[in-house]
Each structure stands twice: as structure tokens, then as C-alpha cells.
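A.,

Following up on our hallway conversation. C-alpha cells first:
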């Protein structure tokens, strides 16, 4: 027997989602750097990639992929290893290029590359599916129809597509960019350190 969604449950899910988007982590750090380094266009495209992958993790949770990871631990371990190495690689690149000056004449980043980089950052943490599953279990009823699952996915994607690009546009304002250029070495090293720690934590934890 399926149970219909309630407005209260959807609003609670959206509140949890907004807190997750705005909390400091690999996604927000990467979006900030992409926008401030490569401009608003690259930032918005990165945001779209982040948004799509985040919503797909929720869809995966709704479809029970966390059960697949539990039944086949090697699949989860493989994804976790790949994700950890990618975050560490990003951290190394940030540190290597931290002292390199940035000008507006620098070569633009390809649109496809910006979008895919956003997807890869959110793909890099397979724990997202367990987080999504936990939120879904707490907020929504146990039995959901296919239509309800589709609605939850569409709702998540809509929120992400509104909030993530809005953050990129805000971060891309001239004042924020000017401040970033002044503090670029410090910010890049700090962001790289945090991403590196997150990658190592993902790599080493059981």
C-alpha cells in the first residue's frame, strides 16, 4: 500500500536540502573557486552539473541503490576510492596554481568541461546516496509510489537548479571577484587543504 506525499514532508525535505547546499563542503568550495576563477558563465555551468548529480543521487536513493552498495561492498569501495582520489587531485591542483596570477584575459574554460567538473565533484562522494536515503527515510512515508518518487526527484532537481546557479551569480559579482583576486593564494590553499582532507577522510574511513 502506497502513501501519498504531504506538503509538510516536501517542505521539510526542501529545508534539509537547502541546508545541505549552503553548508561548507566540496560542492560549495568547488563552485566558489570555479566562479571566482573562471567567471560567472563557468560558475553557472558548474552549478548545473552539481545540481544534476545531486538530484541523481537522491533518485538513486529512492530506487534503493544504497541496498546495492550494501550487498556489493566492492562497488561502493571502488566508487569511494575513485571519488577520494579525484578530490585529492583537485586539492593538489589548487595548491600548485595558488600563487599563479589570474587575469581576465586568461583562456576561458570550455562549457562542457565546467558542467562535467560539477557533476564529477558530486559524483566523487558516493556517501551522498546514503545521506539522501537517510533524509528520505526520516521525512517521507515508508511506501512511496512511482509518481511520488518522480515528484521528489523533480522537486530536488528544481531546487538545485534554482539555488546553485543563483549562488554562482552571487559569487561572480565584481566586488566578490576583486576580493578573491586579492586573497587568491590564501583562498586556493585553504580550499585545497579542505578538499584534500575530505578526500583523505573518504579514502581512509571504513
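Then the amino acids I'd put at each of the 206 positions:
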Amino acid at each position: 500500500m502506497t502513501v501519498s506525499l504531504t506538503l509538510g514532508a516536501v517542505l521539510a525535505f526542501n529545508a534539509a536540502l537547502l541546508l545541505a547546499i549552503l553548508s561548507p563542503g566540496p560542492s560549495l568550495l568547488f563552485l566558489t573557486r570555479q566562479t571566482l576563477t573562471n567567471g560567472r558563465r563557468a560558475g553557472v555551468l558548474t552549478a548545473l552539473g552539481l545540481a544534476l548529480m545531486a538530484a541523481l543521487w537522491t533518485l538513486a536513493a529512492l530506487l534503493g541503490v544504497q541496498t546495492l552498495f550494501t550487498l556489493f561492498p566492492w562497488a561502493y569501495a571502488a566508487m569511494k576510492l575513485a571519488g577520494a582520489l579525484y578530490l585529492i587531485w583537485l586539492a593538489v591542483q589548487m595548491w600548485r596554481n595558488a600563487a599563479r596570477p589570474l587575469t581576465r584575459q586568461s583562456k576561458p574554460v570550455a562549457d562542457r568541461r565546467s558542467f562535467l567538473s560539477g557533476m564529477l565533484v558530486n559524483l566523487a562522494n558516493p556517501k551522498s546516496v546514503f545521506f539522501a536515503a537517510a533524509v528520505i527515510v526520516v521525512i517521507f512515508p515508508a511506501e512511496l509510489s512511482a509518481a511520488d518518487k518522480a515528484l521528489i526527484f523533480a522537486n530536488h532537481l528544481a531546487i538545485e537548479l534554482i539555488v546553485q546557479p543563483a549562488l554562482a551569480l552571487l559569487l561572480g559579482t565584481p566586488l566578490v571577484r576583486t576580493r578573491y583576486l586579492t586573497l587568491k593564494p590564501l583562498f586556493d590553499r585553504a580550499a585545497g587543504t579542505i578538499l584534500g582532507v575530505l578526500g583523505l577522510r573518504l579514502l581512509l574511513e571504513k
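The chain has a mean pLDDT of 83. Curious whether your intuition agrees with the design.

B.
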